[in-house]
């Protein structure tokens, strides 16, 4: 193989690695964005709302158990 062919292979491999790294970075950035609160539409906000509702239901069950 000539020097030009080796250089072409090296550039191709570097390009593929850079494309893969860029796509992984993009995915991580967008997944982490979902875990930050943003006034109601993120996954974090949904979990927080559900936790609050479960806590209310738990308190209602405790109070009903004491009444009986």
Give a written overview of the molecule.
There is one protein chain. The protein is 84% helix and 0% strand. The chain has one domain. The chain has two helices and no strands. The mean pLDDT is 90. With 68 residues, it is mainly α. The protein has helices at residues 3-34, 43-67.
Characterize the largest beta sheet: strand count, sense, and whether it forms a barrel.
none
What is the N-to-C succession of helices and strands?
HH
Low-confidence stretches: none
Which bin fits the share of residues in helices? Answer: over 70%
How many domains make up the 3D coordinates?
Answer: 1
Helices, by number, come to 2
Annotation, overall tally of beta strands: 0
Choose one word for the global shape.
rod-shaped
Strand content: under 5%
Structural class: mainly alpha
Mean pLDDT over the full residue set: 90
CA-to-CA gap between the ends? 87 Å
- Rg over C-alpha atoms, rounded to the nearest angstrom: 26 Å
What attributes characterize this protein structure?
single chain, mainly alpha, 2 helices, 84% helix
Helices and strands in order:
Layout (H helix, E strand, L loop, with lengths): L2 H32 L8 H25 L1
Concise structural overview:
The protein is an all-alpha fold. It contains two helices and no strands.
């Amino acid at each position: 193989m000539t020097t030009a062919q080796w250089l072409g292979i090296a550039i191709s491999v570097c390009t593929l690695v850079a494309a893969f790294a860029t796509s992984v970075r993009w995915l991580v950035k967008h997944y982490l964005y979902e875990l930050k609160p943003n006034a109601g539409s993120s996954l974090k906000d949904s979990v927080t709302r559900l936790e609050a509702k479960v806590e209310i239901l738990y308190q209602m069950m405790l109070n009903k158990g004491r009444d009986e």
